[in-house]
Amino acid sequence: MQSLVIVAHGSHLNPDSATPTHTHADTIRATGAFDEVRTGFWKEQPSLREVLRTTHGDEIYVVPLFISEGYFTERVIPRELRLEGWEPELWNSDGISADTATLVASDIDKEVHYCGPVGTHEAMTDVLVRRAESVTGDPEVGNGFGFAVVGHGTERNENSAKAIEYHTERLRDIGRFDEVKALFMDEEPEVDDVTHHFDSEDIIVVPLFIADGFHTQEDIPEDMGLTEDYRNGYDVPATVDGHRIWYGGAVGTEELTADVVLERAADAGADIGDAIARVRQRTNPATQVAGE
């Protein structure tokens, strides 16, 4: 019996914080790849401390719905799950290459396959591309467009910036967009000056965040000049300094993120059959329009 546990931060203040986690869990449940799919949160219920006690599988895969390796993925989650013998070095990572560590969760006396965060998996690049397609409504978008991948900055966690740079480089290598650049909220180059960093008339802006919240819904739109007050809303695209800004919001709300969760579990040894292909088809707007 295989169990998947998706763990996330959650929030006492933002009721929408957990929505992507539940959405991706539902998408994966529909594939039937796991006998059970559960969710656990740091700031909401069910809690990280309790979630494994309600999990019944012989093979348990835990996937953090976080962007980067850092305090939560390296300290909080393993502690709350009571993973015996955990040390960040078990991931053998340079900050963006965490894979899997298999340890015993002491209070249930079972092995748990603890996976790296979704945000550093190579498949997240595909989710960024899908968000570009979603926000523009164009499955072929790329030519003539710039693409800004936005992060918070390195003040609190230098690995956060590594994840941003990693996917920025991968997007460049694809060669689909005319320009691809990493921008940040709290360090240079800043998202406030997005139009100064691109020659392209059309610029897609996607924050590498899991859920929409204060930063993605309020700070970034106002800082970019899409609106003076986020409560009044803004157009997509919005014209700023002669550029059209296609603002996509947090990439983790894109339905294809469920694919990255599956990829993490599969890399750890889970038998998921054709679930990845099914999720990619199910979440593809083109197949939805076609009624497939």
From TrEMBL:
One of its GO terms (molecular function) is lyase activity. CDD domains: CbiX_SirB_N (cd03416). One of its GO terms (biological process) is cobalamin biosynthetic process. SUPFAM superfamilies: Chelatase (SSF53800). InterPro entries: CbiX-like, Sirohydro_Cobaltochel/CbiX. Keywords: Cobalamin biosynthesis, Cobalt, Lyase, Metal-binding. PANTHER family: SIROHYDROCHLORIN FERROCHELATASE, CHLOROPLASTIC (PTHR33542). This is Sirohydrochlorin cobaltochelatase. It comes from Halonotius aquaticus.
